[in-house]
Structure formats: structure tokens, C-alpha cells
Amino acid sequence: MRRTRVKICCIRSVDEAALAIAAGADALGFVGPMPTGVGPIPDDTTRAITPHVPAPISPWILTYESEPDAILAHAERCAVATVQIVQHVDPAVHDALERRAPWLRRVQVIHVEDRGAVDIMAAYGAGPHTFLLDSGRPSVDELGGTGRVHDWDVSAACVASVTTPVFLAGGLNPSNAADAIRKVRPFGLDVCTGLRPNTALDPARLTAFFDAIRAADDAVYGA
Q1: What's the pTM?
Q2: CATH number of the structural domain spanning residue 165
């Protein structure tokens, strides 16, 4: 049976990482320096946490960098093998990183402001290993952590337009995770603010989020 993968973002400590992993997370997001949004931590803190993340769980660094050298340096500084590129960058950036660092997994964020997101995604072709649909507004340097749901009809069109795995982010929480799976059919869900009523990762909300996902997977993808 198909299973929706889950990334728990905005991890800030070893304890939060362990909590997310115990709940069933497939990936953990660590937010690097950002102009806006919630959850940034110093790169030194990220590097201190990532050795505690066991395989096959994948630690991702969310990077504001947009040039190949700077993106690669950020990944190496944080000791991670997956970068989430939060800006819309030139597709050639992915080509350059593939040549220089074929070991580096690249997740390209697509900010869903309107149906133009489908065309933005198409322009990347097969460059990124994964896409992530979020609710930012790049024109004002709003690049994630908004807690805002975007148009899931557009998200569903984005998912249907590619064979590359697509994560869905933006305003997810235990009450709408099942609807997101039914309407968008993403490869995975990515959540931050919806599990953090007081900035800290909330164990009860975390459990409820995974319960909702598993029930939705059974209903949508079960035999």
C-alpha cells in the first residue's frame, strides 16, 4: 500500500528530533538563516543535532542561498546531504550542483501563488530530486513558515504534471492532513507551525497528525 511520507520541519533540538522520529517522521527540516518565517536556528546548532538523526531518517537544511557554491557550502556546514532550496532559482543551479556534488539531494520549493506554479515547476524539468509546494510570496521574501493554506486545486495540478516526488506544505495540521491527501495526493506532507501552538513541537498534535495521515492512507490507497 502506498504511504504518505512525512517531514517534520523547524526542528530545534535533539529532543524535538527524537520526538518526531519516534512518531514516524521520514525527514526532519532544519531552518537556516531566513529573511522571514519561523524556526531559524544557527547552523552550528543544526550541525550539533544532525549526528543524532539515525538512518534512514533524512535531515534537510532549508537554505536561502541561491548560487551553487553557497548552497553546497551550506549543506557541508550543517553536515546534511539534502538541501531544501526555498527560493525560485535558475534551473541551471540544479545542473551545476549535480555536476559538483552528485551525492547532494536537492528539494526545490515551488511557492503556489496562482496557477503559474505549474509552469514554474515545468521549467525545472527533471533537475530537482523532489519538489515541495509551499505558500510563500517570494516578491516580499516570504519563503515559508506562513501557516497559510494555498489553493490545493493548483497543488493537485502540480502533482499530476510531474513524475518527480512532491511534498505539500503550507498550513497543514491534524485537522486538514486527511483532506490534503485526498485532494492533492502528494508523495509527502511537510509541517511546522501546525504542530507548534507555542513554538515548541507539541506531542499530542504530532500524534494526531500521524493518526490522520495513516487513516487517510488506508482510505485513499488501501486495498
Answers
A1: 0.94
A2: 3.20.20.70
